[in-house]
Amino acid sequence: MKHSYVSHLFCPKCDTRYTIEDKHQLCTCGSPLLVAYDMESLAGALNPAMLRDREPSLWRYRELLPVLHPEHVVTLGEGLTPLLPMPNIGADMQIPGLLMKDEGLLPTGSFKARGAAVGISKAKELGVTELAMPTNGNAGAAWALYAARAKMKSTVIMPIDAPLITRNECAISGSNLYLVNGLISDAGRIVADLVQSYGLYDASTLKEPYRIEGKKTMGLEIAEQLGWKLPDVILYPTGGGVGLIGIYKALKELQTLGWVQGKLPRLVAVQAEGCAPIVKAWDNQEKESQFWTASKTVAFGINVPKALGDFLVLEAVYATGGCAVSISDEELLQEQQRVAELEGAFVCPEGAATFAAARKLKQTGWIGENECVIALNTGAGIKYPDTVNVQVPVLQPGEWITR
Amino acid sequence: MKHSYVSHLFCPKCDTRYTIEDKHQLCTCGSPLLVAYDMESLAGALNPAMLRDREPSLWRYRELLPVLHPEHVVTLGEGLTPLLPMPNIGADMQIPGLLMKDEGLLPTGSFKARGAAVGISKAKELGVTELAMPTNGNAGAAWALYAARAKMKSTVIMPIDAPLITRNECAISGSNLYLVNGLISDAGRIVADLVQSYGLYDASTLKEPYRIEGKKTMGLEIAEQLGWKLPDVILYPTGGGVGLIGIYKALKELQTLGWVQGKLPRLVAVQAEGCAPIVKAWDNQEKESQFWTASKTVAFGINVPKALGDFLVLEAVYATGGCAVSISDEELLQEQQRVAELEGAFVCPEGAATFAAARKLKQTGWIGENECVIALNTGAGIKYPDTVNVQVPVLQPGEWITR
């Protein structure tokens, strides 16, 4: 049996095809490229039961991943994160079927590890020795660390306001780290120049086609963890939107294989009120978003003023009958605390936004009674210490507590 | 088939037995209690093949855990963390068979989640509604969050120097958090008073018998992940030592079941030079340790001047032909950086100490050629931002990088 059934790359805008054996970034038309598989052969060769006793990592889906040879796999054990019932907060927002996919339990503490694991593995297979990328923090940390494991050099540029801990992760990996006194879009321009001037591999979001494949494993896992049944709704905190694009791609691939039946879940793009270009586009039923000026939110990972894959995000939302919702910083911080108090889960602010969105959509009736709803927590709350307000009494040794 | 084959509690010092249905803390003789199982019935009822397609969490070993009824299980999806080959740093220290068990990939970012998951589940089964505990940070964070999930009240007391992020975790869970201007031993005295005055459940290390059972799943997982073969050496960063006691207990249980054969791995207690009571006791071949005055180390989790279970730790080390080693803060911080640069793994300082210990023991010849050696990383490096020195150039938007 083949390790991977990957066949080629294609452009979702102009349909141009590219080979899988060579290094490609964007399509000549400027669009991101997507990865295609030989689904017909795969459908005959693999079935769900064969996955059952495979290793508990995203590499259990190797036939649907783009790495041709197992020796190129670069792994830190990522994947098969818990899909947890959330009965207490579910009751609080009257969604008894609320589940959380907890991506905090990944190397580097965020879902970015999925894209980095597959992206770096494929880059290694393609002979890449040095890469550059802009980041809002977590992606850069993940790519820098996986690059180190692959013995690859990296240059990472992040906004000065990105979570402090992600600086440490990049620095300790030996990455060339720079801060920029601006946004991820400013970092992106510097990377574009660096890539052009020095011929580096551009690992910017969607400028290499493989991180989507890593992210799509969230969709594969959700389906497998639900016994190949699909939920009604999946809420995803949307910055660059790669995870949502990936989940949609995964679910369609599972449909093609015949492993899932019926309607796809409604995909919900959750954004912050301070940076909501996808929500604005969805409100106007447009196919692409506009650059969001002066964007600002505590949910730093979704502070992306204009995503390269916005049209793919919107397509996934429209095609599944989903929607796009924005949440204020105040709402999401309140929800972060509720999730911790009621469920013992310390989610990241971006993840908290999906819970706030679920609450809102239940109130408006968009989420119905007894629907199965998945909130995607994209990272560990421990990466964002500043979102928690702590006032603690200090005792001296020998002092007692009375109450 | 029964959910658990737990039978009773017993005292490893005076052999007194206690029932499993009632709340017990220490033995009347002052020793911690251990959990016993009906191994004869279990050996007839369960075999390794039956585990293969169970859920990827520590609850796959439910028969060897103390929770009688599945409805009392409190879980955030903990367990089955990766056992990763470390070929690059392994080559660097001439231990080609070096592996890392990465406990950073657990809820709350540390191995304390294992003890908390099982401890809180059993406390729930016993009807506990409120607990108190001292902590060096990570255990308190884990117990506070799992207590929240179980709808249990908690009071946590930690040294003022404990990792800052663990304050946030306790605070956001709704725990009653106090800092003490001293060490964990000072916090312990305050908790002891609180427990006595108000009748709270004492969740201090080894004062409840069940966290060992959670921690022992590290040993069960290592054996299963190696295909029921045992490694030659396991290095464990030792503060309270519960993990080492647990791993030893697990391996002996697997021997009793006949699931593993041959010699047990040599267990190595790794401590910091600034707090090495177990190392000192081992050097003098003593059965118990002495209180280590003025203890100090950056590896805060192993700053435990006198562990209640020291005699059990030393017994495990002696019985397996292991040893005890101390590492300077400088050595462990250097090793932390090497592990990140060579393997892309950002380990915690305590975990880094085990790598430094492996290097040292290979140099002295204590670790032989081609031995299979496991370094246990007890938590995610992201919980300890201060251990990384970051100097980063700052760019302005529109500025370019030249090189």
Shape assignment of chain A: globular
Structural category of chain A is alpha/beta
Q: So what's the CATH class of the domain at 83-106 and 213-386 in chain A?
A: Alpha Beta
Number of helical runs of chain A? 12
Q: What is the name of the CATH topology of the domain at 83-106 and 213-386 in chain A?
A: Rossmann fold
Pair with the most extensive interface?
A: A-B, 83 and 83 residues
What helical percentage do the residues of chain A reach?
25-40%
Strand order of the largest sheet of chain A: 4-5-13-10-11-12
Distance between the termini of chain A: 67 Å
**Rg of chain A (CA only):** 21 Å
Main sheet of chain A?
Answer: 6 strands, mixed
Order of helices and strands of chain A: EEEHEHEHEHEHEHEHEHEHHEHHEE
Strand content of chain A: 15-25%
| Oligomeric state, counting identical vs distinct chains | homodimer
Q: What's the average pLDDT of chain A?
A: 96
What is the name of the CATH architecture of the domain at 83-106 and 213-386 in chain A?
3-Layer(aba) Sandwich
Are there runs of chain A of 5+ residues with pLDDT below 50, and where? Answer: none
Number of strands of chain A: 14
